[in-house]
Amino acid sequence: MDFRSIYGQGFARVAACATTCRLADPVANGEAILAVLAELDADAAALAVFPELSLTGYAIDDLLLQDTLHAAVARAVDRLVAASADLMPLILVGAPLRHQGRLYNCALAIHRGRLLGVVPKIHLPNYREFYERRHFASGDATEGGEIIVGAHTAPFGPDLLFAAEDIEGFVVHAEICEDFWVPVPQSSLAALAGATVLANLSASNITIGKADTRRLLIQSQSQRCLSAYLYSAAGKGESTTDLAWDGQTTIAENGVILAESPRFAESAQFVAADIDLELLAQERLRQGTFDDNRRHIGVTADDFRRISFRLGPPKGDIGLLRDVARFPFVPADPARLEQDCYEAYNIQVTALEQRLAASKIDKLVIGVSGGLDSTHALIVAAKAMDRLGKPRSNILAYTMPGFATSETTKSNAIALMEALGVTAKELDITETARLMLKEIGHPYSAGKKVYDVTFENVQAGLRTDYLFRLANLHGGLVLGTGDLSELALGWCTYGVGDQMSHYAVNAGVPKTLIQYLIRWCIATGQYAPPVLATLDSILHTEITPELVPAGAGGEVQSTEAFIGPYELQDFNLFYVLRYGFRPAKIAFLAEAAWAHVGKGAWPQDFPEDRRHAYDLAQIRRWLEVFIRRFFGFSQFKRSALPNGPKVVAGGSLSPRSDWRAPSDGNAQAWLDDLARHVPKA
Q1: Cα separation, 653 vs 100, whole angstroms
Q2: Beta-carbon contacts of residue 624 (< 8 Å; ≥ 6 apart)
Q3: Closest by alpha carbon to 374, among 414, 404, 407?
């Protein structure tokens, strides 16, 4: 596999195009289409979609019935077919074609010197400004047919799929304008039959607000059909006798707009994007109801004819025409981020409210370290108490300093508890931990600086043990603070440790989102000013478990130095958990997202001094750490998770929700993929 080839990584480059039309001049329009195709061929595109009736123009009325026009259409088709012999893209163009004594509004599929097939429009609008039945016959019931166009004979009917032999999962279906606006589009049936790339050749005149309606339909159809959807509408040059045209071109994938052109352009234009065929295949594999729906409706492979062709894509790096977010759990778009933070925060708060109400327990017990996770859990708890009409003093919050607790985190914890008005106490575990180490004969008790896992877990275990006993004493619930990222990496102490609680309110929230949720709470003023000031201080503190004393130079134990940057590990987690991607593909995407600080959007107000870049060697190193920890040994911790709400669409790791895996599995297959397919630099 060529690591940096988009085609080797399961992508295909596609384009939606709008040319400047010359009314009733198929030869000139054909040349305009070829000019665009030359650019797309140089850019190694696999598909180019042009508007409805793009060879003649849509708004030419009774000129559609002229013999002279049809002779010119035949010449233009011959020219396109001949010229396509040296072009890579599969071409979809629109033309009126005569067949068995009637005229049809058609999409022609052309590739490498062949007219692969012709798809007629089924639903002919004959309302308001549309008058298509005056000229055209419906393509309904033409399945299985054949048509002669000039010197070419080709399959004819709405039952055609165009499948690339040399790109797995690249199966194209074409429909025409109104066929997309009906309750059950033909593309829905085609998707159930295996089409992954749905194309719409459209005219669609523009009126106020119509572009938004089209965009909504495109996004909806691409998501409902778990597909890519390309839309190309007629633009400049169409007759404005009674209508106007905007040339909207849009590409969507699984509900996400990948690319969209400016409208009302003065010249020919196209938008291109790299669609992820492996993502679509994974979505269909996971969503079993997709195939169940096929069975329910009765769609079979025999309902569509598959026309094969070979693209012959280039090898090597041709770039990636696709935005890959650095933070898949934290959108860069400010409006979307605002919505996500609002929803995540309220999911957690309402879930905790429900748990307290259902258990008829009105007290919470929580350990507060001054770190991100316990900070967020505490402010969520405070808001839940507010909404339940209970005093915040019902939250029994304990800071429990140990051997390596810094003054900074301890003071932050105390300041936060006091500002929130919870019942705050300090419970120093140092002497108890020292006693336990002595009683089990640990070298530390003999004066040796042995800071091993036993040394660390004695502290983590004591803290949890104290919290559970305090909950017994005061009749409360222990509120867990660990997050989704820590669970993914197994960065938690099992059983009597931070892996366990009565309710794990943060278990569905990745570390990168927790950081931004706290920023959101500050930005939206969710709490009083003293609380917000402390939250800001906590955000700027090094992420550390504070279980090992500082070194001779004052350096503190760093979580990310050991398990990797959370921003990279959350990236890896998203693509493993949400899509099940191969390590090589995750590394490819990570390099696209993280290689350059100045490329791509950062989340709103993300601190300049925390904007990092990672080269492929770093990406590979930390991905290997992720694989070893996620697949290799930490599942047993996730298999025994306490309850907690799913928050992000990327998934959860609860064995009762999104993720079920054997606790005694292994990581070898993923490590092999990494070793074979990801370069070391």
Answers
A1: 60
A2: 671, 674
A3: 414
The Cα 655–Cα 400 span in angstroms is 31
Give the SS3 label for residue 200: strand
Tally of CB atoms within 10 A around 347: 18
Tell me the sheet residues that pair with 167: none
Q: How many CB atoms lie within 10 A of CB 167?
A: 18
Q: Which residues of the chain have pLDDT under 70?
A: 543, 551-556
> Hey, what amino acid is at 345?
Y
First-residue to last-residue Cα distance in the chain:
16
User: What pTM value is reported for the model?
Assistant: 0.94
The count of residues in the chain is: 681
What's the rounded Cα separation, in Å, for the pair 52 and 67?
20
| Cβ-based neighbours of 4, under 8 Å, separated by 6 or more | 316, 317, 588
Do residues 409 and 375 lie in contact, with contact meaning Cβ atoms separated by under 8 Å? no
Q: How far apart are CA 68 and CA 329, in angstroms?
A: 58
Cα–Cα nearest to 569, from 546, 543, 547: 543
- Scan for tokens 């997202």, then name that residue: 593
Neighbours of 663 (CB within 10 A): 13
- Residue pair 224/187 in contact by the 8 Å Cβ criterion: no
Between CA 150 and CA 72 the distance in angstroms is: 10
Q: Which residues pair with 368 in a beta bridge?
A: none
How far, in Å, CA of 482 to CA of 493, rounded?
A: 10
Between CA 197 and CA 18 the distance in angstroms is: 19
| Share of the chain residues as helix, strand and coil, in percent rounded to the nearest 5 | 40, 15, 40
Among the listed residues 650, 657, 653, 487, the one whose alpha carbon sits nearest the alpha carbon of residue 578: 650
* Catalytic residue list: 52, 121, 177
Contact 230, 199 (CB under 8 A): yes
Cα–Cα distance, 176 to 124 (Å, whole number): 10
Q: What angle do CA 400, 404, 405 make, to 5 degrees?
A: 45
Nearest to 154 by CA among 87, 38, 74, 71: 74
Q: Which residues contact 254 (CB under 8 A, 6 or more apart)?
A: 222, 223, 226, 227, 228, 279, 280, 283
* Gap between the Cα atoms of 308 and 447, Å rounded: 75
Distance CA(194)–CA(212), nearest Å, equals 28
**CA neighbours closer than 13 Å in the CB half-sphere of residue 48:** 31
How far is residue 614's CA from residue 587's CA, in Å, rounded to a whole number? 11
Residue 327: which of 510, 196, 74, 172 has the closest Cα? 510
Half-sphere exposure of 669 (CA within 13 A, CB side): 5
Instruction: Map 553-622 to HEC letters.
Output: CCCCCCHHHHHCCHHHHHHHHHHHHCCCCCHHHHHHHHHHHHCCCCCCCCCCCCCHHHCCCCCHHHHHHH
Q: Report the alpha-carbon distance of residue 208 to residue 625 in Å, rounded.
A: 53
CB contact at 8 A, 498 and 506: no
CB-based contacts of 84, cutoff 8 Å, min separation 6: 37, 91, 110, 111, 112, 113, 114
What pLDDT is recorded for position 605? 81
Whether 227 and 197 have beta carbons less than 8 Å apart is answered as yes
- CA atoms of 608 and 627, how far apart (whole Å): 30
Q: Which of 25, 128, 138 is nearest to 75 (CA)?
A: 25
Is the distance from CB of 161 to CB of 304 less than 8 angstroms? yes
Angle at 190 between CA 154 and CA 40, to 5 degrees: 65
